[in-house]
Amino acid sequence: QVQLVESGGGLVQAGGSLRLSCVVSGRAFIRYGMGWFRQAPGKEREFVAAINWGDSTYYADSVVGRFTISRDNAKNTAYLQMNSLQPEDTAVYYCSADVDMAAVVSGRADYWGQGTQVTVSS
Questions:
Q1: pLDDT digits (tens, 9 = 90+) for 52-103
Q2: What torsion do the CA atoms of 96, 98, 101, 106 make, to the nearest 10 degrees?
Q3: Best CA proximity match to 64, nearest among 78, 48, 40, 52
Q4: How far apart are CA 20 and CA 103, in angstroms?
Q5: Which residues pair with 23 in a beta bridge?
């Protein structure tokens, strides 16, 4: 069973920073692409960032220059460094994984974590 567990969310003031982590277990030896999505109450899940096995990255326009996705394959972990946070970034953030990078970016990844809450106050 492949499992993804997110951590690192919390409450932060506007302009602050958080780093989210996503640990993959079960079949972490597979060369998954990894993604981060977020979902605010009453809204659909939206793409935030993704990274493939070779460290090519993809970002939503709304987070370019503020968020950085990375991965440490030895630790089976993906990260999302979030700087200059704004209230509009408030959402539950979900990690995803799939061997198909297109599936990751499009929100159709095979595996998803349970999410971690990020709340940005003004």
A1: 988 999 999 999 999 999 999 889 999 999 999 999 999 999 999 999 999 9
A2: -50
A3: 48
A4: 21
A5: 5, 77
